[in-house]
Amino acid sequence: MNTAFGDLPPEAYHDAPWTRLLPWLAPYTPATARELVDLTPSPDWWITESPAVTTMTVEHEDLCRHLAQLFVVRHSTAAFGQSFPTVPRHLPLSTLATSSRVATTFQRLQVRTVADLGPLTVGDLYDVRGTGHNTVEDAVTALVSAAIVRSGGQDEWDGPEDEREALRGAAPASLPPAQLQLLEDLTQLADWRHIRRRGDQSLLNVVIEDGAPEEIQELALRLNSLTAADMVSATGSSDPVLEFTAFLSELDERQVRILCDRFLGRPPKKLAELAGDFDVSRERVRQIESKVKDLLAGRFHFGTTIGNLLASLRTEIQPIAALDRLITLHPDLARDVPGVNVPLWLVLDRLDDYFEVTDGWAAAPDVAAAREQTRTLLEDFATDHGLVDLATVATATSMPKTELLAWLSWCGYTLHNNQILTRTRSLGDHAAGLLAATGEPLHIDELQLQIGRDNSIRSLANQLADDERFVRTDRSTWGLASWQLEEYTSIRQQIGLELAAAGGEVEIGRLVDSITSRFDVSPSSIQAYAGNGDFEIVQGVVRRRECPAAPRKAPSATRRLFKYDDDWWKLRVTVTRDHLRGSGFPVPSGVASLVGCAQGEVAELESDLGTQSIRWTGLQPSSGTIKRFLDRLEVREGQNVFLEFAPYGRFDVSLPDPADPEAHPLERAAALTGCAEGVGSPEDAQMALAMAVDLPAHAKPRQILSVYRQRGDDDIASLLEEVWTRPRNQWIHQSSTDPSHAEAGRSEDDEVDASDEILTVDPAEPQDQVSDDGSVSVPAGYRSVGWVRPHEAEAAVLAYQLHSDVPMHDGDKISGWARYVDDSSGDASKFRANVMLARARSQGERIVCWIREHEAFSVVQAAAERRSMSVRGPDGVTTGLVQYFPPGSEAAERYRSTTRLLRGHG
pLDDT (tens digit, 9 = 90+) per residue, 492-512? Predict the structure, then answer.
C-alpha cells in the first residue's frame, strides 16, 4: 500500500532526531522494543539516528508501516496532535488519505485538516462506522510518513503533476469518498469471488419494501443480479507456480537448498547435515533459514496470486477438507513447482502455518486439532449412549456428505443406521451405541459381528452381563435396560420364577410351554435343568429338590486334574486362540469342588497378577481369563500350561518344559501330570503318577492304569499301557469288534446301522460312495462307531455336562435318550465312555453306540460347519473322524443321518 509521500530523495527527510519527530518513541530501549531493533542494522536507530539516515537502509513504506503498527497497538489513547508535532497543522487531510477508505473515515469524522485531527486518538478512528483495523493502520502510516518528511517536501515536488497526485493518493473531485470506497469494495469483493471460483454468485442482496416504485424494484433486481463475472478481476489470471518460480530466482544457491531441504523436505534435513554440506556452522544455517522465512512471510501476502490462493484455502478448510476437493477447486495445487520438484499444495502447506496436509486431509491448524474439534462438535449433539444423528452433523459443517463420512471414518467413528457412534472405546460402550442406534434387541452374534473386534462371543456376553446398562431379553439376545423389557436371566432362574408363581410345583409340559413361548430356549434344555441342581421332576411335576443333588466328580476323578503336593492341584490346559484373546473358558466340576465353588456361586482366588474368578452360574463351571498369565509366560497357541490351585485360595499358571520324546514312557506320562521335576527314574515316575491321582505312593501298576482309564486321561493311559500291558496293536487285532458298539444291533425297520462296518478303501475315494449292498466304505485306518445324528450328539454333550440322562429331541418328539453312567460303573470302564445313545422303538430302546464327550462335540461341530472333520482327544491327538454327508445324498437318505462317527485303529 503506497503512503502519502512514497519514497523521497534523502534531502526530503528530516535530519532531526527521531524522538523529537515522534516523541512517543522516547521511552523505548532495545530491551523493551524488539520490533524496533529488527527494522534496521542499527539496534538503537530511533535513539541515535534521524530519518535522513535511517531511510538509507530501510524502505520508506516498510518503516512507516511498522511504526504505525507499534503506535496503534501501544498508544491507542494518545492524541494525534501531541504524537505527531511536526506535521503541519494546516495540511489538508486529503493529502493523507491514501485510500478512499481513509478519506471516508475522515469525512464521517467531519475533519478536514491535521489541526482538526489533533485531539483525536486511534480509539476515535475505530469508533467510526465501517472503519476496520487496516483503515486505521493506513491513516496512522500516512501520519508517520508526513512527520518524517520536511514540512516543505510536499510543496517542493518537481516531478510530473500526475505522479505527485498519485503519491498523494488524491482522488478525482467528481465522486465523494464514500462512493469511491463503494466501488473499491465491490471490485475487491468481485476479485475474492473470482479467487473462490464463485464468479456466478450475486455480490449484493438488496431488499426493497413492498409497494416501492417499479423503477426502484427494477434497480434492486439489477443490483441483486450483479455477479463477479460482470466485473473485470483486478487480480488478473496470474500463475501461482510462475510466481513462486520467480521468487526462487531471487534466492542464492544456499537459500534455495535450505528452502528445499528444510521447508519442503520429506522429512526435513537437520541443521547439522546442512552445515556439513555448506561447510559452515549450524548457527549460520539457522540465520539463513530465518532470512528465508522472513522473505516468504513478506512476499506472499493477500493481493499476490499465492497469497490469494492461501486465503481461499483457509476459507475452505474449516477445520478440515479433503485435498482432492481442494485440487478440484484449484487445479494449480496439483502442479509440480520447477526447481523444488514438489506439488504446489506441499509448497503452500509448508509456507502457511494455518494448515497442514496429512494423509490426504488438509486441516487447520493440523489434523490433531481438527480431530479434536470434530470430537467436541459431536459431543455437543451426542445422546446418553453417545449417538449423533448424521443429518444433524451434516448441517453443522460445510463439508460434502461423502467427504464428511470419509473424515468420520478416518477419525475412527462408526456409523450405524445413519447414527454416529462416538463411544466405542470399550465393548460395553460400543454395544450400547449399537443397540440404541438399532432401537431393538440384538442377538449376541449380530452384536459381535457389528462390533467387529477380535474378541470371543463369551467375553462379550460376560461384559454385557456385568454392565447394568444391558438386560438379556432372551437366551442369546440383549437389549438396553432403559427400554424396560422383560429380562431373561437364565433357565434355572426362569424355572424358579415359574415355580414361585405356581406355588412351588408345576407340570413339566406347562413349564416348557410357558418358557419357550417367551424365550428362544429348547424344550430339552428346560427339561435338563428341571431335573438337576435345585430342581427335580417327580411323576411329571417339577419342584424344588428336597435333598441335595448328588455331587459331581471329585478332583481325584477329574480328567487332566492332578495332585501335585498336599492340597496343591494342577489342571493341564491346551492353550487355544480364545485363551490368548482373553476369553473365559469352562473347567471341570472337580475344579469348582476343589476351590469351594457351589452351583450358582463365584469363587475368587488370589494371585500375583490379581484376582482370578471361578464361577458356576451356568450348567458348567468356568474360569475367568488367564491372558495376563499367558502373556507373562509368552505362551503360544497349542502349548500345554498348568493352572495351579494352591492352599489358602492361591492361583497361578505355569509353563512346563518340553518333555523329552526319548524319555521312558513313565517319565513322559509323569510330565503330562506336571510332576516332571524330581522324576529321575521310572520308579520315581510311577510314584508320582500314583500320587497325582490321589493314590498311595506304592499303588500297583494295574490300579494306577485303571484310575487313569476311568478318568479319561487316554494320553497318559496309552503311555502306561506301553510299559504295563501287551502291545496295544495286539490288543486291537485280538478284538473282533469295538466295545463301543458291542451291544449295538440291527434296526428292525428300514434303517441300516453301519456300526459293524469294518471295510477299508483308499482315503481318496469319495466318502459318500454307496456300494451295491448299500454300505458306505470306511477309510483305511478307521472303524465305524455309528451313524450318530447331530441332535443325538447334542443330547450326549448335555448329558456329559449335567451328569444325568437327557432326552434326544428330534423336532417336537423324543426320539431316544442319552443315558449317563458315572465312572464307578462297569460300563464306563468297559466302553471308556460315560454316555450311551439309545433310540426309542416300539419294541423298546435300541443302542446306537457308546460315545465319548470329545466325539460328541466333534459330531455337533461337523454338522454345524457342514464338513467332515477329525476328532481330537483332550490332548489334541487325532482319535477319529466325523464324516459329513450332504442332506439329500444317497448315504444321508439311507442312514437318516448326515454324520457318521469313526474311530482310529491305533
Answer: 788 888 888 888 899 988 888
